[in-house]
Design goal:
- The protein has about 130 residues and is an all-beta fold.
- The chain has no helices and eleven strands.
- Strands 2, 4, 5, 6, 9, 10 and 11 form a seven-stranded mixed beta sheet that branches. A four-stranded antiparallel beta sheet has the order 1-3-8-7, with no helix packed on it.
- Strand 4 and strand 5 form a beta hairpin.
- It is globular.
- The chain starts with a strand and ends with a strand.
């Protein structure tokens, strides 16, 4: 059982930045594919970014088109923590952001579904 905890959300102005963190309580995330998802009011949950496990030949990242060039996902392998750096935030980015983890299956492949463990979310609100 993996319990994920997100942190770093908050209220920012349009164009501002936030860094979200995802960690597993009592466990490292280094052996898992980790993804960030978000869900805005009235919309379905969507994939934002993901990163492969360090056990599969180095990090491979994947981003939704809506956040490419603005968001960066990364790992602190020593701590097993995954981050989502969000720059140039827009009102459209307002959502609850969830961290998810998946057992590694395919090398250098970031899935956009089928994740095994989920955090409870952290709220990101961008005001104009």
């Amino acid at each position: 059982q993996v319990q994920l905890v997100e942190s770093g959300g908050g209220l920012v102005q349009d164009g501002g930045s936030l860094r979200l963190s995802c960690a597993a309580s009592g466990r490292t995330l280094s052996g898992y594919v980790v993804g960030w998802f978000r869900q805005a009011p009235g919309k379905e949950r969507e994939f934002v970014a993901g990163i492969t496990s360090i056990g599969w030949g180095g990090d491979t990242t994947s981003y939704a088109d809506t956040v490419k060039g603005r968001f960066t996902i990364s790992r602190d392998n020593a701590r097993g923590t995954v981050y989502l750096q969000m720059n140039n935030l827009k009102s459209e980015d307002t959502a609850t952001y969830y961290c998810a983890a998946k057992h590694t299956a395919i090398p250098r492949f970031v899935p956009r579904g089928g994740y095994d463990y989920w955090g409870q979310g952290t709220q990101v609100t961008v005001s104009s």
